[in-house]
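Teaching note: in complex prediction, the entire set of molecules is handled at once rather than each chain in isolation. The prompt given to students was simply: 'Predict the structure of this complex.' The entities are:
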Amino acid sequence: MGSRQHVAMTGNEAVAHAMRQINPDVVAAYPITPQTDIVQFFSQFVADGMVKTEFVTVESEHSAMSATIGAAASGARAMTATSSQGLALMWEMLHIASGYRLPIVMPVVNRTLSGPINIHCDHSDTMGALTTGWIQLYSESAQEAYDNMIQAVRIAEHPDVRLPVMVCQDGFITSHGIESLEVLSDDEVAQFIGEYKPAYSVLDVDNPVTVGPLVLPDYLFEMKFQQAKAMEASRRVILEVGKEYARLTGREYGFLESYKLEDAERVIVVLSSTAGTTRAVVDELRRKGEKVGLLKPRVIRPFPASELRDALSHARAVAILDRAETFSTQGGPLFCEIRAAFYDAPKRPLMRNYIFGLGGRDVGTSQIESVFADLAEDVARGSVKTPVSYLDVRE
Amino acid sequence: MTKLKSAKDIPIGGIIPEPGNSRAYRTGEWRSQRPVWIPEGCVHCLMCWVYCPDNAIEVEDGKVKGIDYNHCKGCGICVRECPRKEKALRLEREA
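The expected output is the structure of the full assembly:
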């Protein structure tokens, strides 16, 4: 498509549209609700000859990730997409993609993990993948999912990074809801992502390499150290790419997005689509003169610890909303990491945690209002009475 | 021991960028027992060379010349298959 335009698309369509414009060399994928649309739309682009992509239909997500890894190791720009059980089935291959330093971009449409079986949104799938060595970007809307896809290619392929990236959006809420968004022209996307220059290719007979050999205790640790350093380097690259994308689109992306946070005394920290609901509540309470605000992390791998400290240390009370359980009995994954980030901070706001929205339980403005009300009680008391609670569960 | 390189000096992702470099990897360091060749008792039937899974029996002009201890892992199959048994090849514990 020749020019920039405003379109009405679901989150899944927006991601498939981005994939068409990225025009990867290889896509290997398997359908799973609520991601299925992405692969379905994309396979239509393939059938219609709109992309040059080699589309590989596989028999499982383990094979999808394996084929994507094989393609990436051969120097191809390779992608797949998944959700929930599909991500779980990829598990061992997720570590291999990051360990081999393959810049694979994978949209993940967040859905709870069985059991019991349920197809709706929570973040238990990608939160479980926090230790797989993948960069994770979270998207509030179809626009953000689209924008994150384009940026993810640049972040993943940067020579100092070369790590795989998950681009997450909320299952059904974002993936199947139609929104208005601005999409770039095909040329703009092609220019922004540029030509992929792989570090190596197993198909390059003039410069032969072995990929995936045995690495014993004498070198494996050094390779994991390299990975940690690459994750560290991605912090700079994520910001650079975000700034460059802002010059192109006017939409700037960093680690965090804050809303009415500067003078906020009570703050909610939440990922993805629930940030939109929270923003509406912040507006409503601000009209009543309440000093409330929102902080929405976009990146949680690498974890933006210092940015979170800077953004939150002025607050009096912070509620961290986790759409996933850790079953540690000490709170959700975001809560544990954000609280740990404040251990050395000179100024620490009161912090409490809510597990919410599991298995697609709807979160509306009234639930978010109740969180701000709980925070007001904590502020008045000067302490947190319940560090971890479950939002809107029938106890 | 081979001198080990630092994280800065090795390729990323565990790839091996040069072909045929397994020669440089001294798997002999893994050995807990070693075959000792006794030239006087050897009839050069080359059964050890045939069976060695690591190509560690050194042969020149159809005759055994010795054992490549940099790559022999000490599995002992050469000793087991040697028809001259203890007269040509003996398995010793590594010091």
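Point out the following to students. The longest strand of chain B covers residues 33-37. Chain B touches chain A at residues 4-7, 10, 12-17, 19 (CB under 8 Å).
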